[in-house]
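Hey,

Quick one before I head out. I ran the complex with iron/sulfur cluster overnight. Inputs first:
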Amino acid sequence: MTAWLVLLISGYRPESVKRRLTLHFPREAVHQPITYRLAVDFDIAAKILRAQIAPNQSGTMVVELSGDIDELDAAELWLEQQGLALNRAPGEIRIDPERCVDCGICSSVCPSGALRFDRPSQRLQFAAARCLVCEQCLPSCPLEAIALVLEQP
Ligand code: SF4
Ligand code: SF4
């Protein structure tokens, strides 16, 4: 039996990957059903992490996209064709160990599990590889120990 037939019978689907994007909407595009079109046309799940969009104004949305990697590439191209500007690499999150007191508050707002409070050690753990750079943790820290470090152009 050929490999492709085995994959077909087993219902194989390429592994889903996640990508975090900041979408900047021009005023003309704010009414578009973006998440619906991503789901129907590209089989991509879009989880909205943050949105600042007012009617008839330009806006910004931070989304986590999950789907086949080729479909993600095609979807990004489609989004740009709709007039949206995409920011793929805004920077990275850093925790200042001099300021952090391991209170664990930030871990409660982290949607990806990148920030986790380890109960046995009573320490905050940060898995940078899981971070979506959604910035939700930034305002949660009472000691301003979390920073977004922007990449150099
Ligand atoms: S930016 Fe903060 S809240 Fe968002 S995924 Fe990264 S660690 Fe979690
Ligand atoms: S909220 Fe701030 S001080 Fe508390 S664990 Fe997170 S980074 Fe550390």
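Residues 1-13 have pLDDT under 50 and may be disordered.

Talk tomorrow,
K.
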